[in-house]
Amino acid sequence: MLTLPRSLTRLGARPLARAPTAVRHPLRAFSAAAPRHHQHGGVSKGGFAAAACRSSSPLSSFTAGGGASPSISTSSRAGVTALLSTSRSSSTTASPTAEKAANTPTTPTVLPEFSLAGKTVIISGAGRGLGLVQAEALLEAGATVYALDRLPDPSPEFARVQEKALALGTRLEYARVDVREVDVLRGVVDGIAEREGGIDGLIAAAGIQQETPAIEYKAEDANRMFEINVTGVFMTAQAVARHMIASGRGGSIVLIGSMSGTVANRGLICPAYNASKAAVLQLARNLASEWGAHHIRVNSLSPGYIVTQMVTELFERFPERETDWPAQNMLGRLSSPEEYRGAAVFLISDASSFMTGADVRMDGGHAAW
Prior knowledge:
Layout: H1 6-10, E1 38-40, E2 43-45, H2 74-91, H3 96-102, E3 120-124, H4 129-140, E4 144-149, H5 156-168, E5 172-176, H6 182-196, E6 201-204, H7 219-247, E7 251-256, H8 271-291, E8 296-303, H9 309-317, H10 321-327, H11 341-348, E9 359-362
Parallel strand pairs: 3-4, 3-6, 4-5, 6-7, 7-8, 8-9
Antiparallel strand pairs: 1-2
C-alpha cells in the first residue's frame, strides 16, 4: 500500500476518489494488489494482451444470352478466344515474388509505431468528454491510462470504458485531482510513477470556459481561468516530466489547446479563454525546447468547435450558432469528440517520434481562412 505524504493529508485533500459501484479497479490508494504493467527494454511485465487489429471476378466470356456480334466471323471469334485464353494463362502464371505475396496473410495489422502496449499515460480532465474519448483510444492502442479530474465521480460513461479496458487486457484508473492543488497533483503523479515503474505519456486536457465580454470581466474570474487553463496545465506537465527525466526514457506530452489560441472566434466573446489557449500553445513550444535534451516531446492539439452535451445545451439558448458555426469552416460542419481519437494516439505514440514543438490544429479549416 502506497501512503501519500503527510503534507497531502494536512491539506485535507481527496487525491483518490471513490468511483461509482459499476467502476472496477479504481485508483484507491494505489493498491499493491492491482497488477503492475510496464514495459522495459521490450519485455512486458504483467502480460499485456497482444491485440491484433482483426472480390474480384474473373474475366467473363461472352454470354449465350448476349450472343456473338454478327460482324465477327467464325475465324475472328476463334482468334479472340485464343487471345483470351493466352491472356488468362499468362495472368495466372505468377512470378516468385507475386506468388509469395499471394501466399502472405492479408489480415490487417496496426503499424507497430502506433502501439502503446506496456505504456502508462496520464490524462487530466478525463472524467468525461474529450479526455475520456481520448483515453478510450489509448486503451485500444494498449496503454494503461490514469484519468485525473476534479469531479467527485467520473461520468457514467467512464464505467463502460473501464469495462472495455479490462476486456482489452489493460486498465483505466481514476483519481480525483484539482490541478490547482499542486501538492496533491504531484503526490498523485508520484504515486502513479511508483506503482507503474514510470510514466510514458501525458495528455493535459483539464480546462474551463467562460463567455463574458471583456469590459465586464472580473479579475477573480480571469485569474481562475488562467490558474486552471495555464498554470494547471504547466504544473501537470512539470510533475510528469520530472519522472520522465528521472527514468531516462523520456516520453510524450500533449497539451490540449484550441483553435481559439490562434484566432478570435467570430461572435463568441471569450477573451480570457482565448488568451489562455494562446498561452498553452506557447507553453508547449517552450517546454519542447527545454525538455528535448531529455528525449521528451511536447506538442499541442488544437480542436475546433466540438459538439458536446454542453454545446448542445448552448444551441438551445443561441439557436443561430448551430448554423453560424459550421459555416465558418471549410468543411461546413462541426466535429465530434471521436474525431480526435487518432490524433491522441499519433501524438503519444512513436508514430510521431520526430515531432515536437508543433501544434496540430484540427478545426475543419476554420483558422485557414
